[in-house]
């Protein structure tokens, strides 16, 4: 069994389901901490700050700090910081997590002549916001999306994800966005930089073949498909990017790497 020196861990469907911790997840995180193996919780969530995500994990009994979390909002802000200077005007469709991360990087949130239009999940999305974003993009602003997730999981089932908003802005503006989150390589590259491990010694863990497993495949990183969420073992057999490893849950994976 190959020894991995770092882990990128999905959250919903891997660590927890709704408000419930998936059995074995807390023990696996504790093992990584005791073994001093670096890890990040890698999520396409752009609505919450890293502090909020960590607090939620702590409330579930998962050892977590804000520095252990890497969201699509953080990746978007860091990507933008590679291409634009602090003070650059940006138009944002999004919630607290995205707005906070962009502000932390020094960008000015405004609808007046923005250089960039950034679209993250926004549960107060309106026709007016769509109009402002589309006009700015048609006037030359660069279009960036935190992710293209089709669905947003909740305790009450699936709700429309950010992909719906991105599609609306894309149709209205006639432009396709630069997409940051999983399965795109951008978020993986930035997460690896934060984690401090090389791609070949890192494992991406997740339940979703189309985000987590495809993210690893697209970045040359081994993957572990856990059967605790979105995609089944049968799905994996028919998926173009077959996972490197598969396990019923993180308990099974912990037993394997400990034997």
UniProtKB/TrEMBL annotation:
<dbReference type="InterPro" id="IPR006357">
    <property type="entry name" value="HAD-SF_hydro_IIA"/>
</dbReference>
<dbReference type="GO" id="GO:0016791">
    <property type="term" value="F:phosphatase activity"/>
</dbReference>
<dbReference type="GO" id="GO:0046872">
    <property type="term" value="F:metal ion binding"/>
</dbReference>
<keyword id="KW-0378">Hydrolase</keyword>
<feature type="binding site">
    <location>
        <position position="207"/>
    </location>
    <ligand>
        <name>Mg(2+)</name>
    </ligand>
</feature>
<comment type="similarity">
    <text>Belongs to the HAD-like hydrolase superfamily. NagD family.</text>
</comment>
<keyword id="KW-0460">Magnesium</keyword>
<feature type="binding site">
    <location>
        <position position="10"/>
    </location>
    <ligand>
        <name>Mg(2+)</name>
    </ligand>
</feature>
<dbReference type="InterPro" id="IPR023214">
    <property type="entry name" value="HAD_sf"/>
</dbReference>
<feature type="binding site">
    <location>
        <position position="12"/>
    </location>
    <ligand>
        <name>Mg(2+)</name>
    </ligand>
</feature>
<dbReference type="InterPro" id="IPR036412">
    <property type="entry name" value="HAD-like_sf"/>
</dbReference>
<feature type="binding site">
    <location>
        <position position="182"/>
    </location>
    <ligand>
        <name>substrate</name>
    </ligand>
</feature>
<keyword id="KW-0479">Metal-binding</keyword>
<dbReference type="Pfam" id="PF13242">
    <property type="entry name" value="Hydrolase_like"/>
</dbReference>
<dbReference type="InterPro" id="IPR006354">
    <property type="entry name" value="HAD-SF_hydro_IIA_hyp1"/>
</dbReference>
<dbReference type="GO" id="GO:0005737">
    <property type="term" value="C:cytoplasm"/>
</dbReference>
<feature type="active site" description="Nucleophile">
    <location>
        <position position="10"/>
    </location>
</feature>
<feature type="active site" description="Proton donor">
    <location>
        <position position="12"/>
    </location>
</feature>
<protein>
    <recommendedName>
        <fullName>Acid sugar phosphatase</fullName>
        <ecNumber>3.1.3.-</ecNumber>
    </recommendedName>
</protein>
<dbReference type="Pfam" id="PF13344">
    <property type="entry name" value="Hydrolase_6"/>
</dbReference>
<comment type="function">
    <text>Catalyzes the dephosphorylation of 2-6 carbon acid sugars in vitro.</text>
</comment>
């Amino acid at each position: 069994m190959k020894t991995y020196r770092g882990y990128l861990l999905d959250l919903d469907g891997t660590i927890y389901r709704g408000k419930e911790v998936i059995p074995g997840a807390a023990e696996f995180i504790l093992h990584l901490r005791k073994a001093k193996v670096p890890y990040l919780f890698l999520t396409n969530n752009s609505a919450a700050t890293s502090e909020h995500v960590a607090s939620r994990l702590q409330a579930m009994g998962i050892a977590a700090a804000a520095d252990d979390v890497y969201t699509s909002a953080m990746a978007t802000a860091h990507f933008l910081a590679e291409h634009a200077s602090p003070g650059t005007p940006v138009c944002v469709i999004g919630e607290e997590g995205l707005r906070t991360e962009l502000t932390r990087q020094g960008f000015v949130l405004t609808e007046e002549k923005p250089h960039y239009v950034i679209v993250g999940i926004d549960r107060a999305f309106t026709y007016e916001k769509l109009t402002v974003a589309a006009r700015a993009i048609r006037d030359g602003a660069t279009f960036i999306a935190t992710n293209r997730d089709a669905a947003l999981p909740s305790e009450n089932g699936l709700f429309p994800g950010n992909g719906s908003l991105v599609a609306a802005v894309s149709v209205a503006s006639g432009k396709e966005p630069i997409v940051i989150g999983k399965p795109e390589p951008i978020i993986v590259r930035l997460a690896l930089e934060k984690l401090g491990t090389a791609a070949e010694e890192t494992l991406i863990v997740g339940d979703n073949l189309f985000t987590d497993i495809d993210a690893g495949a697209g970045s040359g990183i081994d993957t572990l498909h856990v059967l605790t969420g979105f995609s089944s073992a049968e799905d994996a057999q028919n998926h173009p990017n077959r996972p490197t490893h598969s396990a019923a849950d993180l308990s099974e994976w912990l037993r394997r790497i400990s034997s």
